[in-house]
Amino acid sequence: MRNRVSRAAALLCAAFLLATISGCIERRIYITSEPPGATVWVNDVEAGRTPTSVSFTYFGNYDVRMRKDGFEPLITKGEANPPLYEFPGPDLVATAVPARIKTDVKWHYVLAPKDESVGSQSEFESGLMKRASGLRGRIPAAETRTEVR
Question: Which domain holds residue 37?
Answer without folding.
Answer: 17-137
